[in-house]
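Look over what follows to help learners.
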Amino acid sequence: MNSPGSMTGSATAGPVMVARALPGARLPIVCDSPHSGTVYPEDFDASVPLALLRRGEDTHVEALWADAPRHGATLIAATFPRTYIDPNRSLTDLDPAMLSAPWPGEALAPGPKSKLGFGLVWSRLSAERPIYERALSPAEVQSRIDRCWRPYHAALQAAIDEAVHTHGCVWHLNLHSMPNDAYERLGIVSDHPLADFVLGDRDGSTCEPGFVQLVAETLRGFGYTVAINDPYKGVELIGRIGQPRLHRHSLQIEIRRPLYMDEASRERNAGFEPMRAHLSALMERIAAHVRTRLDR
């Protein structure tokens, strides 16, 4: 990952990219992009074209937020695609119906998304489009966990732990993008259009309200529409990391994809650079907020 500015450093370790501010400039801000990976493993063995598989990507999200380390944050991104294995799902959120044999590990507890085909390992792109023509073996899934899911979680947890150890607190931004037809894909009938940004804090449980409002008001000041918990509230990562009573704040940020890319081609559009500049300005506001909190 290329990180702008002399105050940053970067490293790539297989399935995970990490860009960090240098130690003297580092703030307790951790950003992660679990769904922007575009490196498709050779053993994927999907039965659908790559162009369709790519509909699951939050393409370019890590690049939109590339300035984050310049503002003191650590930025972590998956290189593998979420359709292969999703680091924003728990290890038990797996549909046993997609396996060729009983799961040998912890008892599975597939959630609503998993039953739709969007769990730890995706089984479908839609109700009409399965990803595989065969069942996956438990060994295949375990290999994906060991090679991708665990390293991603280890890198993210290390960054969270370092922030808490050094500063006693952390602000975590879980970064995503959303398709323009998000309501339709989720089976939701909405009386209003999808917002440009959706902030998720699991109904106020993962983040201090003032921080959510800071992010929302900053984005609205740039001219974007912003919704909170509609239709995305946040899933595994912010639910695990966000513990406001322990000064650990976690917020999910979703960006409507047509604002910065062509959803069909996955290419960046004319909105990409203005969006990146706005997100850099947002990170500057976030860094100022965090410094103020640290000075108390």
